[in-house]
Amino acid sequence: MLRSDFHFELPDELIAQYPLPERSASRLLCLDGASGAIDHRHFSQLPSLLREGDLLVFNDTRVIPARLWGQKETGGKLEILVERLTGTHTALAHIRSSKSPKPGTRILLTPEQGAEPCGLELTVTGRDDALFLLSSEGGPALSQMMREVGHMPLPPYIERSDEAADHERYQTVFAAREGAVAAPTAGLHFTDALLSEVATMGVQRCTVTLHVGAGTFQPVRADNIEDHKMHSEYIEVDEAACAAVRETRARGGRVIAVGTTAVRSLESASQGGEIAPFTGDTDIFIYPGYRFRSVDAMVTNFHLPESTLLMLVSAFAGREPIMAAYAAAVAERYRFFSYGDAMFITPANAQESA
Predict the structure, then answer these.
(1) What are the distances in angstroms from CA 47 to CA 59, 60, 196, 343?
(2) For residue 352, what pLDDT is reported?
(3) Higher confidence at residue 234 or residue 352?
(4) pTM of the predicted model, to two decimals?
(5) CA–CA separation, 99 and 274 (whole Å)
(6) From CA 43, how far away is CA 195, in angstroms rounded?
(7) What is the number of helices (H) and of strands (E) in the chain?
(8) What are the tens digits of pLDDT across the range 22-64?
């Protein structure tokens, strides 16, 4: 298939720049992939779409304040986006500057862009393809530095600096394990009250972990999508999650993944046919033609044109139903992307997710 098969026009004003005051006040577009039927609801009505015995699978990753500002000893300004912590004092990171720093370069961190150095520093120790290896050896742990002077890594389509409220709102209420540089955004709509409501209905819950990397925003450049090289992200799917999936299937319940990150985690752990514990990196690329093994329904936000995530939901619900749903969302003035509205989708063919 071609990248252009997943293009749609989106007015800039529909890209949400801020979250709504209430998490569950977002709208919810429901798409039946088998029939193409579309229903417009609000996220607070999600329980009406769930059944006793269903299983909600959440990604419990926690976003780290991964955006750092700094300058070289020569005064040159730069921006750092930590991609992954590799140790207490080491990380892989993207660095934006007028001239790429060489190994041995000292970076003097600043609390804000253009501010004076604050006494914390990092050293560039090498390269790994497009990423830089950074070290805080001799100083505080890198995670502590980020807590002191780091900023929430809002996506590039949010055209503003992070604010104090983003430290809470660009984080799910069930976030537990630090390591992501982008939020698992489908989970942002859930509140503690909503989680309690679905629990009283007999809906089960389990967690997986996928530390979302900046590669999630990497555009597909290949015209033929099969030529795209997928980025890698770290996941953990433990035996408890696997058992919950197996037990749900055995009792006739549905496995409902909250977000594409939960989908990628479950499907990565199911590549052997049956779901099994998995810890490590995944570069699974799901596009139309893929046979789903562990996911029966999905909660997801709206995704960028021509993105791998739009291809993933198209693989699940069908390209034509998804593109029609996106056209309806634009017409109905839904709010798009990370701080935007959500979808509840069921598969194009129930047999494919069995």
Answers:
(1) 19, 20, 11, 14
(2) 41
(3) 234
(4) 0.94
(5) 48
(6) 12
(7) 7, 17
(8) 999 999 999 999 999 999 999 999 999 999 999 999 999 999 9
Q: What 3-state class would DSSP assign to 300? A: strand
Scanning the structure block, which residue is given the tokens 């562990």?
294
CA distances to 22, 186, 214, 217 from 225, rounded to whole Å, are 37, 25, 20, 16
Residue 41 phi/psi, 5-degree rounding, is -135, -170
Residues 89 and 103: their CA atoms lie apart, in Å, by: 16
Q: Identify residue 349 by its one-letter amino acid code.
A: N
Residue 351 above 80 pLDDT? no
Polymer length of the chain: 354
Six-digit token pair at 138? 């001799």
Region of residue 17 (phi > 0: left; psi between -120 and 50: alpha; otherwise: beta): alpha
Residue 353 banded pLDDT, cuts 50, 70, 90 = very low
Report the share of the chain in percent with pLDDT over 90. Answer: 94
H-helix or E-strand spanning residue 61: strand 61-63
Phi, psi of 64 (to 5 degrees): -95, 150
Residue with tokens 């752990």: 269
Q: 194: helix, coil or strand?
A: helix
Contact 151, 57 (CB under 8 A): no
Q: What is the DSSP string of 142-164?
A: HHHHHHHH-B----TTS-S---T
